[in-house]
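# nightly structure sweep
# worker-07 picked up a monomer target from the shared queue
# config: single-sequence mode, recycle default, output format = structure tokens
# input follows
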Amino acid sequence: IRIVYTPVHCSWLNPIENWFGVLERRVIKNGNFESIENLKEKITAYIYYHNLHNKKTTKWKFKGFTKNKKLRCCKLAS
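# output follows
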């Protein structure tokens, strides 16, 4: 078992994970692909469609670290 702690400032990963989830649900999950090339074509077509019709600006909330503020640290129980 490997436990990985994701820092709070990694919230930029959430929109990326959501986008891949939508790609998986709309293109890959119930798709029927004749070959790897066919799969690549359908993914590329979805990316083109998404960029044309569904694009939107993302407003980032993380403003950066302050120099004098100490970071919270978790101690593992031994």
